[in-house]
Amino acid sequence: MARKKREYQSSELVNSFARIYGFEDKLKAFEIKDFLEDYLSNDLYAEIVSVNLKEKVLIIRIKSPLLKNDFRLRKTFFLKKFREVLKDESLINDLLIL
């Protein structure tokens, strides 16, 4: 009889709760938001309202029309970057900028 694992790291617990309660997509969206915080300047990052992942579509809401346009023009670049951040290409099929 195998012994059950008694010690867990906090990240393992968060991931298992996310899997149980069905908000894995929100955790992935947080990873992308953290990446954007590091990638963009503070002023540009302040323009991002929200980042959500629903049904393999990453939805980013941006206040600034100029930043919106930049994201739309560089959509394939950002899709590639986000897939690298998540380390799984099958999690994101499309990018929607609102």
Précis, in short:
This protein has one domain (10-97): GMP Synthetase, Chain A, domain 3, CATH 3.30.300. The protein has a 3-stranded mixed β-sheet. By secondary structure, the chain is an alpha+beta fold.
Q: Any guess at the CATH architecture?
A: 2-Layer Sandwich
Helix content: 40-55%
**CATH C-level class:** Alpha Beta
Beta-strand percentage? 15-25%
Please state how the strands of the largest beta sheet are arranged side by side.
1-2-3
Number of distinct beta strands: 3
Summarize the main sheet: 3 strands, mixed
Number of domains: 1
Morphology: elongated
The radius of gyration is: 16 Å
Which regions are unreliable across 5 or more consecutive residues at pLDDT < 50? Answer: none
Structural class: alpha+beta
Number of helices: 5
Fold and architecture overview:
The chain contains five helices and three strands, in the order αααββααβ. A three-stranded mixed sheet has the order 1-2-3. The chain has a single domain, classed as GMP Synthetase, Chain A, domain 3, CATH 3.30.300. By secondary structure, the chain is of the alpha+beta class. The radius of gyration is 16 Å and the shape is elongated.
Structure characteristics:
single chain; 17% strand; 98 residues; 3 strands; 5 helices; GMP Synthetase, Chain A, domain 3; elongated; 3-stranded mixed beta sheet; alpha+beta
